[in-house]
Amino acid sequence: MVVDDHPMWRDAVARDLAAAGCDVVATAGDGPQAVRRAQAVRPDVLVLDLNLPGMPGVQVCKELVGADPALRVLVLSASGEHADVLEAVKSGATGYLLKSAGAEELIDAVRRTAAGDPVFTPGLAGLVLGEYRRLATDPAPAAPDEPKAPQLTDRETEVLRLVAKGLSYKQIAERLVISHRTVQNHVQNTLGKLQLHNRVELVRYAIERGLDDA
User: Fold this and answer.
1) Under a CB-based contact definition with an 8 Å cutoff, are residues 169 and 117 in contact?
2) What is the pLDDT of residues 67-97, one digit of tens each?
3) What is the DSSP string of 121-159?
4) Which of 77, 95, 192, 198 has its CA 20 to 30 Å from the CA of residue 86?
5) Which pLDDT band holds residue 144 (cuts at 50, 70, 90)?
6) How many angstroms separate the CA atoms of 133 and 37, rounded?
7) Which domain of life is it from (predicted)?
8) Residues 6+ apart with CB under 8 A from 153
9) Under DSSP, is residue 28 helix (H, G, I), strand (E, B) or coil?
10) Which among 101, 103, 43, 100 is positioned nearest to 73, based on CA atoms?
């Protein structure tokens, strides 16, 4: 599903994706319309602009991902401002691509987003990872009544460690000599146990626990 308030841009993106074999199930031109239509058609991937009338893109993302954690959101924005990128990721976006990207780059980003990989315009991935490292140096104190951390299996922990190191699902599958689907299943199980929404949050969780250095 493609969400952008500029009709020509929205139609061009939808046309490029459809020509590449993607099933564009809906489009929307403002925030409230995006929420209504996404809830009706339940897309696998939402290509979302941030600057929308009626409701900002980050709020659209927060509402939709909150209601359906399996939804993948790829922000496609003209803004490369650090604050916009971080706000989008914190609202549940899986990736962030600038509108200066070419059609092939967009199509590749949508496919990778659908597979659960975090996709960022070069330079922005380091920004997000750096922010999570900063947060990890001063984690919030646990509440006295906070439940114990969920128990992950040895294989889930192993996959989580490789995710934290930045490996793709394909690379993890090759490293552990298991199928791509098995890696996806382990990640989905881990997300469920940890009550996280997407792979970006999973990377943050792993970094907070030093798994990227293990």
Assistant:
1) yes
2) 888 899 999 998 888 788 888 888 888 889 9
3) -TTHHHHHHHHHHHHHTSPPPPPTTPPPPPPPPHHHHHH
4) 192
5) very low
6) 36
7) Bacteria
8) none
9) strand
10) 43
